[in-house]
Write a structure and sequence with these properties.
single chain; about 220 residues; mainly alpha; 2 domains; 11 helices; about 0% strand
Length: about 220
């Protein structure tokens, strides 16, 4: 029976069916065989309800919704502009601005994908235009995006806490210090990698305060 289930799963995967649906179809097949035929299917709504009957999991779609709202609202533009005005005169300034913007965005949405997409869509063209090496540019965005799963609130931490019955609050607290350390480490590595690039002129203080004022509400969200 296990061999038959394995063959069925491989066939479904080979047809291009997503992994989740392939596993689901395999599970339905197992229920049909081992739980008294078609009557076992009446248990599916109950199992689905019990799997989702966790108030912790309700936070996940809300964070996804927030990520989409921020993405459509071009909040990433404001965060990147804030980092750019305050940090562009340092070695690798635009890269540092990207990392900082990713860290702030991660503390709002908890999603690595949303973080990388939102900040990367702005940072990548700007950094390439300023002469940054393409590998450094892509590596900066990819590294900054990973902060979304570590700096709380983190969607993977919520899911892990719900699955393993652990305290989500304690998981969030455990991610604060490592998230800060990783952010600083990314900045140090970036400064070293960009040490030979020409420095840009510092932005006037009026522009810095204007960018901070524009992004103040977003920075206070975490």
């Amino acid at each position: 029976m296990i061999l038959l289930f394995t063959i069925l799963l491989l066939v479904l995967l080979a047809t291009g069916l997503p992994v989740a649906f392939s596993l689901g179809m395999g599970g339905l097949f197992g229920m049909f065989v081992f739980m008294d035929g078609a009557s076992a299917f009446t248990q599916i709504p109950i199992l689905a309800y019990k799997a989702l009957d966790d108030f912790v999991l309700t936070a996940v779609p809300l964070y996804v919704l927030m990520s989409q709202i921020l993405l459509v609202g071009h909040v990433g533009d404001d965060l990147f502009e804030l980092g750019n005005k305050w940090l562009k005169h340092y070695p690798g300034g635009l890269g540092i601005a990207t990392i900082v913007a990713c860290a702030i965005f991660a503390a709002i949405t908890g999603s690595s994908v949303a973080c990388a997409v939102t900040i990367g869509s702005i940072a990548i063209p700007e950094m390439l235009k300023r002469g940054y090496d393409r590998n450094i540019v892509l590596g900066t965005v990819a590294a900054g995006g990973t902060l979304g799963i570590l700096i709380p609130p983190s969607i993977p931490m919520i899911l892990y806490g719900a699955i393993t019955d652990q305290s989500v609050g304690k998981l969030f607290i455990s991610g604060v210090v490592p998230g800060i350390i990783l952010t600083i480490a990314f900045i140090i590595i970036l400064v070293y990698q960009c040490r030979d690039l020409p420095l840009e002129a510092a932005a006037p203080w009026s522009e810095r305060w204007a960018a901070l004022k524009k992004s103040f509400g977003v920075c206070c969200c975490p």
